[in-house]
């Protein structure tokens, strides 16, 4: 437990260090890409818990992201302290304002998404494979339709003028927390149970694992971090609308997973990095060849090639870890000395 | 652990002295650098492509005529792939890496909204050719647009229905998932009621619907004088056919979303004699429009759409603003844009108002066979 906290602190310190570097020494455009990578990383790792570890095929990640984005943006822009006696809003400024208002707003976004995950998960996780994919796809669509018709959050126009609180520290702090928690989760009894459910649900049940409960917990866990990622997305983009969270967004996250290796958290990180950086990196290529649409065609081609050569994803189900690195790199340790 | 913290602290101190982002001037002795960001891939790629063609035609013409105050235009375009996050990335790249003098874009309001804060932050004027959501220009005093807004377009259609079509009862059929559609529909309704008309039916459908019979039946039962269809051409063509099939033969009315080569063929005659409002009329006799249509046809082989016309106008508006400012200074160009009055473009004569929006007329067109006949212009003063 103490070790876990230590690693978490180290992760947060790392995020703070990165924040200092990015905010001081990196020009705005690369800095924006770095930040977008962080959000993609959270999305990919959290979906990996559902799709990779537990083996459920969810296509509703954008829906959870939308809920998180709207709830946290609602907290930082609209929610004000309400005086019931006077029946009016007391303060001019939003209740969750500034540096100390942002984390609770993010957390609220995550919790709202997790609740939605619970509500959706209980009935739909009885379904398997394609049926679950369709049900979660439907969920994502329902969220975007509800938001489109909800005038209080701007309807189809969405919310604008969201304060830009999502800096590198918050984004990478959340990403580090997500990665470290998921890493511990994977190694725990609980994580093993998830993998057992993925490999053979019936066998897992026989071993005394409550498969339904495992699946729902994984779903809620994934939804929570998707909500946090949504909150960060809103406070980075400064404007959100239901159109941002269409099913293509869910598909994008699934592609990150498949590319990195379904079932591997570090693979998810690498997949997220590649798919976020690649379209931006190809901008200059498109500009050179002066052919519009070339960028997206090349991007798709690269994906096809990568999948042809490594259909199991870059990492397969393996994790990138210090141990693996040590094994791959020529060892500096002298023989006979204990590593 | 302690060492790591010390290293971080040291890093913090050393980096705190690093300076903030400096934006280059965006012009040199020979060239002025303009940025363009529209979607040339993704869902709305055709709109972006047309805009880009219009912009490129204008840049070519201006450069052939000696440029702006002696400087040739260098144009850099980045695709926004119909996604707001790419819009923001493209805007950041244009502002901080390419250091463009003025930026032009985007088509979709959602993308303009994501991009606008970036240009505002660095004091680079941004002019959108065709983002109609009112909140776009509210993002800051460096953000402008050259198209009319949804509220004016909706109100103008209502005024046209009442004054020209003598309608007293109107029905609306809107796409509930589209901000453009619901916006137009709300403003049409408000203006129609204000002038004493009655909205007898307001029906909605979901994005991707192709069977509108239920809604059309409801509308027909209320026997309106006119049906307002704030949607894009593909929906308009389908709805028109189903209205006629059910025997609802009143005029149908729409906005600029109707404009397309495919409108008439798709409707198979069902839209004959219907009306829609547009940014410009290809058949306009104004010599400026005639010259533009001819040049565009020569370069690309087809007639320009409204988006191409707006893209063309944006570049000339920027040119005019730089000339009015008298020098290459972003703040002065911003002031000149804000003061622009009576500018005559191919999309009509317009002023930039205090909200940095274009105050301009709308061209009402009548569908006659394959052609769109120009009926008349509705000026902003008429609907206020």
Short characterization:
The complex is a heterodimer of chains A (339) and B (384). Chain A has 339 residues and is mainly alpha-helical.
Query: What is the terminal separation of chain B in angstroms?
Result: 69 Å
Radius of gyration of chain A: 21 Å
Number of domains of chain B: 2
For the record, what CATH class of the largest domain in chain B applies?
Answer: Alpha Beta
Beta strands of chain A, count:
2
Number of domains of chain A: 1
Gyration radius of chain B, in Å: 23 Å
* Helical content class of chain B: 40-55%
> What class would the helix/strand composition of chain B place it in?
alpha/beta
Gap between N and C termini of chain A, in Å?
24 Å
The largest beta-sheet of chain A arranges its strands as: 1-2
From the structure above, extract its key features:
heterodimer; A: 339 residues; mainly alpha; two-stranded antiparallel sheet; disordered C terminus; B: 384 residues; alpha/beta; Rossmann fold; 2 domains; seven-stranded mixed sheet; five-stranded parallel sheet; 13 helices; 43% helix
